[in-house]
Design brief:
The chain is mostly beta strands. The chain has one domain. The chain is about 0% helix and about 55% strand. The strands form five sheets. Strands 4-3-10 form a three-stranded antiparallel sheet, with no helix packed on it. Strands 7-8-12 form a three-stranded antiparallel sheet, with no helix packed on it.
């Protein structure tokens, strides 16, 4: 199965200012940025052993792989600061600081094996 979705729209800050120790944020247009598209390929196969007439239960094995090509799909984006905003004394300086977006991805390639049985 191939899964594809366009990236989510988000609003990112364009600038941050520090005035008297308080951080003020200026934003871009609402939903003005789109995250990268989400896509992955999942594969799976089921093996059912030969059925015997006298058996009291039936079983099958399922082998699957989630995200076959190990794409780092965006789960969410969090914001940090690109510049060092502290001076030598460890206190926050007034001025302009640049926000930086960091992408977090989860669920890399994920193999699984399942045994199903009915009785």
């Amino acid at each position: 199965v191939f899964v594809y979705a366009t990236g989510n729209s988000i609003t990112l800050p364009s600038e941050r200012y520090i005035i008297d120790g308080n951080i003020y944020t200026e934003f871009t247009s609402r939903n003005g940025y789109r995250m990268i598209p989400y896509h992955r390929l999942d594969i799976g196969a089921t093996y059912t052993p030969n059925k015997k007439k006298n058996k009291k239960f039936k079983s099958s094995w399922n082998f699957s792989i989630y995200n076959v090509y190990n794409r780092k799909n965006p789960y969410f984006i969090y914001l940090g600061l690109e510049d060092n905003i502290e001076n030598e004394n460890g206190s926050i300086q007034d001025g302009n600081v640049t926000p930086k977006a960091y992408q977090v991805s989860i669920f890399p390639i994920l193999p699984s094996i399942t045994w199903n049985f009915k009785f």
